[in-house]
Amino acid sequence: MPKDARGVLSEIKKGYISKRLKEGLRGDQRKLSEFRTIRIEPNFIPRAQGSAFVHLGKTKVLVGIKVESGEPFPDTPNQGVLTTNVEMLPMAFPTFEPGPPNEDSIEIARVVDRGIRESKMIDLEKLCIEPGKKVMIVFVDIDVLDYDGNLIDACTMGVVTALHTASYKVDESSPETKLPVRSMPVSVTMVKIGDELVCDPDLEEEQMSDTRLTVTFTEDGHVRAMQKGGVGYLSMDQVKKGIDMSEEAGNKIREYIKQVI
Amino acid sequence: MGTPSDKKLINENGVRLDGRGDEEIRPIRITTNVLERADGSAFMEWGGNKIMVAVYGPREAYPKHTQDIEKSVIKARYNMAAFSVDERKRPGPDRRSTEISKVISEALSAAVLVEQFPRTQIDVFIEVIQADAGTRIASLTAASVALASAGIPMRDMVVGCSAGKVEDRIVLDLSKDEDNFGQADLPMAVLSKSKKVVLVQMDGDLSKEEFGKATGMVLQATDRIAEIQRKALSEKYNIENLSESNTGGE
Question: How many CB atoms lie within 10 A of CB A75?
Fold first, then answer.
């Protein structure tokens, strides 16, 4: 959770959430591995080459994709470029401040980017126009509009949806091409409360927890990216349990994304 | 992970390029109290990695809004020297080092008894002088020694190692080529006695079985590395066997 969102949660609320967890339920009646209601609106911004408006419970993020030509990195002359940026807008939370990305938004962007990149979701070699000189650059920009927990998963599902619906033109005269995508990664983030891991934490659950774990799976059942966050720790058993929970919960999200694209 | 490549990482005899076995880690050397001004310091050599760590504090947290009225805030700053990599690195923080600084700070916070020093910060300055794969784990392992050498109370030492997948084999402590051209990288750090996981990241492609094997190998390696940490500290105090006299931990 972003540092500047670490509010004070009332003792009575903490007590209630802990008590419900002992009964195997969450404060809002969800099961431990259950996500909040997900609604994704693809192609929300027609002017972008791909886009998605994600509602994850009350968390809202907007993903926009721009594909422009540019120079490749010197060490990968035959590949297009993927860049990911997250803007935590001041409108999203009372204490978010304008300015350059802080470490929290950099971490979110890098974890989301890692999941997409390591899943080999975009066939970057197909985005090479002229080796060493001209490739297509995929700019993934994410605006956080409303923050109620679990930005990493909201952003990842938005990016995956937007990439799957994106198409681009090399220049004005050339035909429109679909962005070459070939897999569907899904990230699942959990936080530890007491000794339990809960999926898709809302703001209050994030405020109660000091340990976060994100696992990104592809549809072949392979782990592609992981990140532990927060100042707490996890036992090895909890890490493995987290991986199992992530696979199970992620499969449901993947089914949903397939419906909307 | 780097780009797919034809580079062979395991030779025709089934041995890794640098001749190591699958579960063999590169040589590690840690020296403590190498800096005069710092409250604690450590110099770590791990394979070709050369990393200097300095600890200052606990001291009043500044700027003031970063203070925590209940505990000390650990501020690790991971920085790569311009000359530490093949192609000159532009000096100053970038997105990668910002993320690494964050996960290292968090991992150390799980070990230090931060609740003993409210409103303070503990600065951990990490300078990667030469990079040779696995710098975040080497930095964290060295930082833990530097904190201990500064006399900062900790519930346990933090010790880490990376595992990865190279030509479909799970191996320990990836070398630079294995990191660049391998199939997966899994850096992990634990509290050395309780084996609680305080840092875990992964990128690449691992099945669940491979993940289990990799973490098992890392856990075993951390025992060996923890022994090197203890030796480094016991040399400083001239104690015959620090592991015997150390009763800390949970």
Answer: 10
The nearest alpha carbon in chain B to A218 belongs to B205
B95/A110 Cβ within 8 A: yes
CB pairs under 8 A between A and B: 91
Task: Read off the CATH number of the domain in which A126 is found.
Answer: 3.30.230.70
Q: Residue A141's domain spans which residues?
A: 3-260
Q: Do the chains contact at A118 and B205, CB–CB below 8 Å?
A: yes
Q: Which of residues 71-100 of A touch B (CB under 8 A)?
A: 75-76, 79
Q: Where along chain B do its domains lie?
A: 28-234
Interchain contact, B198 vs A222, CB within 8 Å = no
ipTM topping 0.85: no
Q: Is A129 exposed, middle or buried (0-12, 13-18, 19+ CB in 10 A)?
A: middle
> For position B239, what pLDDT does the model report?
60
Q: Which superfamily does B28-234 belong to?
A: GHMP Kinase, N-terminal domain (3.30.230.70)
User: How far are the Cα atoms of A50, A141, A178, B137, B222 from residue A47, in angstroms, in the given order?
Assistant: 8, 14, 15, 43, 52
**With pLDDT > 70 as the criterion, what percentage of chain B qualifies?**
92
DSSP B153-176: -BSS-EEEEEEEEETTEEEES--H
Q: Give the Cα separation of A28 and A37 in Å (integer).
A: 12
By Cβ distance, the residue of A221, A225, A231 closest to B203 is: A225
Alpha helices in B62-207 (DSSP H): 95-109, 135-149, 176-181
pLDDT band at residue B4 using 50, 70 and 90 as cut-offs: low
Answer whether A213 touches B (CB < 8 Å).
Answer: yes
For residue range A82-103, what is the model confidence (pLDDT) as tens digits? 999 999 998 899 888 888 899 9
Reported as a single tens digit per residue, the pLDDT across A189-226 is 999 999 999 999 999 999 999 999 999 999 999 999 99
- Nearest Cα of chain A lies from the Cα of B165 at a distance, in angstroms, of 12
Residue B240 banded pLDDT, cuts 50, 70, 90: low
> Any CB–CB contact under 8 A between A164 and chain B?
no
Write down the pTM of the prediction: 0.84
pLDDT class for B1, splitting at 50, 70, 90? Answer: low
Nearest of A226, A230, A156, A218 to residue A191 by alpha carbon: A230
List A135's β-bridge partners, or say none: A70, A128
